[in-house]
Amino acid sequence: xxxxxxxxxxxxxxxxxxxxxxxxxxxxxxxxxxxxxxxxxxxxxxxxxxxxxxxxxxxxxxxxxxxxxxxxxxxxxxxxxxxxxxxxxxxxxxxxxxxxxxxxxxxxxxxxxxxxxxxxxxxxxxxxxxxxxxxxxxxxxxxxxxxxxxxxxxxxxxxxxxxxxxxxxxxxxxxxxxxxxxxxxxxxxxxxxxxxxxxxxxxxxxxxxxxxxxxxxxxxxxxxxxxxxxxxxxxxxxxxxxxxxxxxxxxxxxxxxxxxxxxxxxxxxxxxxxxxxxxxxxxxxxxxxxxxxxxxxxxxxxxxxxxxxxxxxxxxxxxxxxxxxxxxxxxxxxxxxxxxxxxxxxxxx
Length: 349
What we know:
Blueprint: H1 2-13, E1 24-28, E2 32-37, H2 51-69, E3 73-79, E4 87-95, H3 123-132, E5 139-144, H4 147-164, H5 168-176, E6 178-179, H6 182-188, E7 192-193, H7 201-210, H8 213-221, H9 224-236, E8 241-247, H10 252-271, E9 275-278, H11 281-292, H12 299-315, E10 323-330, H13 344-347
Parallel strand pairs: 6-7
Antiparallel strand pairs: 1-2, 2-4, 3-4, 5-8, 8-10, 9-10
Helix pairs in contact: 1-2, 2-10, 3-10, 4-9, 4-12, 11-12
């Protein structure tokens, strides 16, 4: 059983996380796995109250449950089983479970930032994505497919880059997480590998210049941040649909459950050769603004965050419930590269 549990935890490590931070730790027993949040791993402005990390832990938890199902094990999950808010869940395995076909997509799931084809989702694809989200009633998936609305949400997702290039703290944080070579990415096993950003050669040269805050400030004076956001908005809008996850609240448990739903939807997309890219930066910045005040944001950033979230909330028909995540989904060529992952020894305690 030990070998099986280690394999399930490796599946957990394959889950998505903000900046590929992998903010989780695991403890293994004879038939149980404890999932713990590692709050020291991600202290970014995007991670108010560790909400992004709770979502990542939920995705890792889902992968573990799915991987165990492939071996015929069922799983019961106890969320926050004690008073420690870092102890996200205890997963208890038992024989007699039924294999979930989503388990077969865990290793293949990845982020694809390439332009997508402007092709509508098939009836089967749409039903599969929506069906995958029905595992948890407290989180609802809305798929936005009208071209006008997809264009608007694509622009909303790109507001993140506009703010990033004009806010020194966010700028420095982002560029400190870029791995510029394959060797650097393999050594760190966290952060963004430059090839995964899918930058064309001219964009790569400009991107290297922008890592200098002083140069970024000068270029933004002539509208570079607007031009980049416009281009990224157009890329985002090439999707077949924009998915919005709407939760019942903003407590840690809401984000853990949203992470589980997100992973199931992403895996369902992967099984159908659909590509996915998160567009949630603006949502996590807005979450910090709403709960921690305007510290760290200029007046212009506060205004654009509020206006952009209002657009997202309206188009996604959130009805006053929080939109916790947004992503684009569609048909595309395979991504150029994938980011590395931490070894089992770094996260299994």
